[in-house]
From TrEMBL:
Family that this chain belongs to: Belongs to the zinc-containing alcohol dehydrogenase family.
Organism per entry: Arachis hypogaea (Peanut)
Cofactor dependency: Zn(2+)
Residue ranges occupied by any Enoyl reductase (ER) domain in the UniProt entry: 2-350
GO molecular function terms listed in the Swiss-Prot or TrEMBL record: oxidoreductase activity; zinc ion binding
Keywords attached to this entry: Metal-binding, NAD, Oxidoreductase, Zinc
Protein name, as recorded: Enoyl reductase (ER) domain-containing protein
Length: 353
């Protein structure tokens, strides 16, 4: 049983989303400490506060609280967190992503027999219990179900960060989303919520594109059947889109993203790639046409998670549409197998407790 320290909470996990980032770790495509527990978008119940935790944390997240955890777990104290840029938290990258630990340099998971450390990808949420820093948690309203709400911590959180902070989508903007999996399809819903006019979904599977229309896509392009760059330019009257989002993490889709934005447009990259992957861009077009290429890893937990709760609670973001499959805890391996084979439309969730 993991034990929380000061400023941390022990969560009895209820559900955990099935995300490509975990799959990258499982396949060794992204280097990470091993052995480790993956799973980084969770809902659960607060069962314990770390000793010497700030009374304000206990007041905000009392025992028995229903909570959502975001995959970026801000320390709250570094130079970025103090400016409100939780998505660039120094400790999160230095300790969790680089070493698989929390911010004292230690994991909270150990093998029972030998006491050897087991590392944590974010909170290591694919488990019956996990330890989460308080800054990464937000109260889940009673009206929202544990299962579907798990995706708020990564798929929806990543999409919101891309749309609100990186792209700064405004009403009337045209938006293209390349790759309409869990994160991409959430981008479509957020773009619609922000009042985007043309919302173009690009994928290689007709089934995903059909579903994209329910998320708000006004146009769909199957890139195996037609050139997505030409088609996007055609749809936008020869100009290109205000914002293009790459949600896959491949050099080919990186190029499609940068080439389908209009002059002065924003190409936002949110898909993680195999380590060492490189995207290319025509320098003269970048310079002359003032193209903006922006990376975005996720949202800002302390500001954005409460907003996502309200979007979901009001139905502006439809959680039920977004989650297409549910697995039992025992079927976790099958869930990642299905994800690897491209069999999941939208997002899948593993029910734990």
């Amino acid at each position: 049983m993991p034990r929380p320290k000061a400023g941390e909470l022990l969560i009895k996990t209820k559900a955990c989303g099935v995300c490509h980032s975990d799959l990258h770790v499982l396949k060794g495509e992204i280097p990470f400490s091993s052995p480790c527990v993956v799973g980084h978008e969770i809902t659960g119940e607060v069962v314990e506060h770390g000793p010497l935790s700030d009374p304000k944390i206990i007041e905000r997240l009392p025992l028995g609280s229903r909570v959502v955890g975001s995959f970026i777990m801000p320390c709250g104290n570094c130079s970025y967190c103090s400016k409100g840029h939780d998505d660039l938290c120094e400790d999160f990258f230095a300790y969790n992503r680089a070493k698989g630990t929390l911010y004292d340099g230690e994991t909270r998971l150990f093998l029972r027999g030998s006491g050897k450390p087991v590392f944590m990808y974010s909170m290591g949420g694919l488990a019956e219990y996990c330890v989460v820093p308080a800054n990464a948690l937000c109260v889940l309203p009673k009206a929202l179900p544990y299962s579907e709400s798990a995706i708020l911590g990564c798929a929806v959180f990543t999409a919101y960060g891309a749309m609100a902070h990186a792209a700064e989508v405004r009403p009337g903007d045209s938006v293209a989303v390349i790759g309409t999996g869990g994160v991409g399809s959430s981008c479509l819903q957020i773009a619609r919520a922000f009042g985007a006019s043309d919302i173009i979904a690009v994928d290689v599977q007709d089934e995903k594109l059909q579903k994209a229309k329910t998320f708000g896509a006004t146009h769909t392009i199957n890139s195996t059947k037609e050139d997505p760059i030409q088609k996007i330019i055609e749809i936008t009257g020869g100009k290109g889109v205000d914002v293009a989002v790459e949600a896959l993490g491949k050099p080919q889709t990186f190029a499609q993203c940068t080439q389908s934005v209009k002059d002065g447009g924003k190409a936002v990259m949110i898909g993680l790639a195999q380590a060492g992957s490189v995207g290319e861009m025509d320098i003269n077009r970048l310079v002359r046409r003032k193209i903006q290429i922006i990376g975005s890893y996720g949202g800002r937990a302390r500001q954005d998670l409460p907003k996502l709760m309200r979007l979901a609670e009001s139905g502006i973001f439809n959680l039920e549409h977004a989650v297409s499959r549910r697995y039992t805890f025992e079927e976790a391996a099958k869930a990642f197998q299905d994800l690897n084979q491209g069999n999941i439309v939208g997002r899948a969730v593993i029910d734990i407790n």
